[in-house]
Amino acid sequence: NMQIDFESLISSLKSGITYIPNTLLLVLIPIVFSLVFGTLVAYARAEKIKVISQIFAVFITIYRGIPTVVALLLYNLLFLTEYEKVQNFFHLKTSIQDINVIWIAVFALSLQTFCLTEENLRSAFLSIDKGQWEAGFSVGMTKWQILKEIIIPQLIPVAIPFLTSILVGLIKNSSIVISVGVVDIMVGCTIPANVNYRFFEAYLAAALTYWVLNAIREFLMGQYEKRGKRFKKEVA
């Protein structure tokens, strides 16, 4: 029977926890980026604004078909082969060794998350009753005021379920960054195992760490969902 070495488990947990900031960086920046720009593009596409909606419709359709790990490897290869040309052209003092490859991973995850978020937010925009706009205009509100005070708050209860799924996906998929040399929770937990060969405890430590992060995420998203539902009832 396999017995768990708790000393090795704790050692792996401690090692993995030190890399939580890397994982949070890989999660928070993409989600903030995708929420800001995803909302703008979703609104433009929902309103069928010419040129902008068409350009992003093509881009999102194409980009969603590219696996994140493939995009990540392509960006890393472009960075390694083309950065020197960019550096010489702009006379940059920052060398390729000075740039943390985690930013390549952040870029790849941000674009993938943006595409997913935009598609879902556009559906959320379309689900809002047009009568909400008419009611706002009837009392003298501007389009921006209606968006800020009525429409966007009503998107929260509609958007929370898919945002939760996107967050879960980001937390779990952040482990693919090892393909370009970025150390995250998963890799961090296995560092002690390279010495003591207790890989079961290392993977268990990684699973526990990811579970705790997702439990915190579940609690926070649940709180936002409750607030969104209360607002929707008040508006109704």
Keywords:
0% strand; 236 residues; 10 helices
> How much helical structure, as a percent, in the residues?
over 70%
- Most strands sheet: none
Radius of gyration from CA coordinates: 22 Å
Order of helices and strands: HHHHHHHHHH
Distance between the amino and carboxyl termini: 59 Å
Number of helices: 10
Q: Structural class, judged by helices and strands?
A: mainly alpha
Strand percent estimate = under 5%
Number of strands: 0
What's the rounded overall pLDDT mean? 87
User: What is the 3D shape?
Assistant: flat
Contiguous low-pLDDT stretches (5 residues minimum) are none
Written overview of the protein:
The structure is a single chain. Helices cover 79% and strands 0% of the residues. The protein has 10 helices and no strands. The radius of gyration is 22 Å and the shape is flat.
Chart the SSEs and their pairings.
Blueprint: H1 6-17, H2 20-46, H3 52-63, H4 68-90, H5 102-127, H6 130-138, H7 143-173, H8 185-190, H9 193-196, H10 199-235
Helix pairs in contact: 1-10, 2-3, 2-5, 2-7, 4-5, 5-7, 6-7, 7-10
